[in-house]
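User: Please work through this fold.
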Amino acid sequence: MTEKQLEGNKIIGEFMGGQVKWTVEIKNLQIYSWSGDIVSEYRVLSHMPPGDSMLCEHMEFHSNWNWIIKAAKKCIKTYHDRRSRIFSALISKEENIEELFDSVVEFIKWYNECTEEDWIVTNDYPYPKNK
């Protein structure tokens, strides 16, 4: 797993409802864990024993369709725009998991920077005021 993939996995993990926290440092290598109720669902997808935490190095949003699809669906539910890169990557015939992973991470970074004033609500769906 590359550093970019690890960072992206951590960003998605927090967006999905878990908590990413520093655990330990071994020979200048920072080890992080992902914990929370949501983690048990992903442990099952990865055929891991039951539990509510895992090392971030074991996260698979960058390489497992079952993982990234759940994140992409949450992004689409959060932001209902069929012109988004996430929606385009989902319906792409190429099924490029890297493109979808990058799109999800990019969306979450953007979403995390938004404030309540950046959104309007129409028919119970939030939309950004400025595209």
Observations:
- The first helix runs from residue 3 to 15.
- The CA atoms of residues 37 and 52 lie 6 Å apart.
- The mean pLDDT is 82.
